[in-house]
Amino acid sequence: MKRKVLLSLGKRNFPEDLVEVLRSSAEVICISPSDPGYNEVLKGVDAVVVGMETIDEEYLSRAPKLKIVARFGVGYDSVDVEACSRRGIHVTHTPGVLSAAVADLTWGLILTLTRGLVDADRFAREDWVKRTSRLPFGSDLERKTLGFIGLGRIGSEVARRAQGFDVKLIYNDVVRRPDVEEDLSVEYVEFDELLREADIISLHVPLLPSTRHLIGRRELKLMKPTALLINTSRGSVIDQEALAEALEEGWIGGAGLDVFEEEPLPLGDRLAGLPNVVLTPHIGSATVETRRKMATVCAENVKAFLEGKKPPNLVPEQRT
Ligand code: NAD
Questions:
Q1: How many CB atoms lie within 10 A of CB 237?
Q2: Whose CA is nearest to atom 33 of ligand 1?
Q3: Using CA positions, which residue lies closest to atom 20 of ligand 1?
Q4: Where exactly are the structural domains of the chain?
Q5: Domain 99-279 in CATH: superfamily?
Q6: Do the Cβ atoms of 107 and 130 come closer than 8 Å?
Q7: pLDDT tens across 251-294, in order?
Q8: Quick check: CB of 74 below 6 Å from ligand 1?
């Protein structure tokens, strides 16, 4: 009997020609988690390709035949890997192919904040000619210190892009990266020292129990009052209530955020009312080219499984 693949991503994320790749060895059912027929389909599938939906014990209990969860993305905090491993279910992700896109967005947030581009855009449309406010001034990046918390694939790509700016680079990571230190002139510093020294802090850690609220009141208070905090990792790496307070009270200078504790960001959220933040709706990997690369990697993982081979991008916990 033909095996079944549930694909919860629409055509924009998973182009038809890649769906065809899977169709050559399985029946592919494209259905969104909000569709009323989803649970019925889930009962009979061998593979799921998923976005940000939570894959926990409860989900798995509704999918008795499931053998592989292919996550469309590199972060897999939404998947209970232990529960999957206990049931002999593979978990794969899409590392590397989205690092450049996320690094580009990170720089977009840094430059938008330092040069006040959102205010400048508004000014150019109206105030410039009306002269109802003064030309906004930004600040230079030159000679500033950029601090990375997490210098893995994405953090390193951000550091690589920093080579064109005259900035000092420092980082903290639970793993030392001597190759990157040398290659990109990034200096390792202790966590608190990074918080105290950096003019811009960029977060690139996965969401784990150890990184949940890594940045809270204590950490925000250690930062410079002019410091900018950039988060393109996961919302819950920051205690968002504490961050809103820090921005309101001027403990730090500003923040550029692509990810939030609750997504979509609720209407009327405190952060949305603040002038010193730039917000983007979790678009780190959202480019046409990168989404296609991610879909290709997902298809390769599922295809390998369907052919009885080891999927090439198992999450680290399953790579033994
Ligand atoms: P990676 O595994 O290559 O790098 C993560 C780094 O964080 C590693 O070097 C690791 O040692 C370090 N780390 C772990 N715990 C730490 C801690 N407590 N303190 C300091 N460093 C710690 O992962 P990556 O590919 O660079 O991706 C990083 C994260 O970015 C993903 O897990 C995902 O959550 C997020 N992400 C977001 C988007 C987006 O759309 N905004 C897109 C892709 C990835």
A1: 24
A2: 75
A3: 173
A4: 3-97+288-318, 99-279
A5: NAD(P)-binding Rossmann-like Domain (3.40.50.720)
A6: no
A7: 999 999 999 999 999 999 999 999 999 999 999 999 999 999 99
A8: yes
